[in-house]
Amino acid sequence: MEKKETPGGYLDMELLRFTTAGSVDDGKSTLIGRLLYDSKSIFEDQLEDIEAVSRRGGNEEVNLALLTDGLRSEREQGITIDVAYRYFATPRRKFIIADTPGHVQYTRNMVTGASTADLAIILVDARNGVLEQTLRHSYIASLLGIPHVVVCVNKMDLVNFSGEVFEAIRARYLEVAARLGLQHVTFLPLSAKLGDNVVSPSTRMPWYTGPTLMEILENTPIDHKINARETRFPVQHVIRPISDKFHDFRGYAGRLAGGTLKKGDPVTIFPSGLHSTVTAVTRYDRELDEAITPESITVQLADDIDVGRGDLIVARGEQPRVEREITLMVCWFNERPARPGNRYIVMQATRETAGILKTIHHVVNINTLEPETGKEALSANDIARVTIKTAKPLVFDPYARNRVTGSLVLVDPDTFETVGGGMITDGE
Known about the structure:
23 strands; globular; 3 domains; Elongation Factor Tu (Ef-tu), domain 3
């Protein structure tokens, strides 16, 4: 979708969300800083600030990583410890970047930053090749169903811009991609520090004739179909009349998580299974001819039936799963181990209920990408296939069909910490 010639201008441009991931010191923050710097997407006062910080740190050159390492503690340590979100635009597109940490103890941040991404940039240090964290982040990218992966072989300047080194890393990663089922993988040699192949083509790697990173970001197709197969509308809030003037009004507000909705559509409400018909779809104070994913809307129904927060409105005939026992892949975030029988708060779409961890089927060995059975507890940063049992039924789709209705988080009921994030595999 090109930029529209409308008064909205910038607001009507297509948006690409992408994440960066890799091992420690692969140059993720420097790469994003270079993107922002070379595309002239930073303000003059920002540049002055990082120049001053660079000088205080004894650097003669501007440390572009400081553009994304926003916390003072990050700047002082020279590492990324939180997800840094940045926004910029070119004449073709708007972008939201999630720069995620490389340290293994911050794997949960990578899951958070990548959960809504259309594209993942996975950095590999040309000197080190494919490492354990490369495998971990690639596995997470496959779990999250990120449609496009760009493998950036960074620091090519430190291996004399060798095409042989690049090809060896490419061959190794293709084996990983085949194991994980990654479909759309692009390989790019670059030097984030010097700017080679980031925004401008490199003159020092004539053996590479492909696009720059910016060209890839501007031209990668954005596939919104992952949430567009069936109509899914999780009810977030029930809007009731506030005065006699609007005594007949009753609406259901939320964000459309799949498909479309319009006046006259026959729908079913789950988990009750009750039927009704849409009488109006509004956004703010305007009625819509049709709402599309992922618009935030209010829906009115023809029948006065019991619909509340956590219910799911679907197109009639497009049946979701309704179960109390759910099998999923979970990324465990917390230092406190998860054992069968442990109780958690389960939050899925707009629904919240109590649940227990029933079974640990296997834990993924990140080095071999093979499942290992017999583990009695999950440790921090484990990726595992488990079954949970909930007090109230969940209404869901497999994650491969819908990212919203197919994902959930587990919350510790004592500390209210988010301890795990899961992708539902039931029904795949």
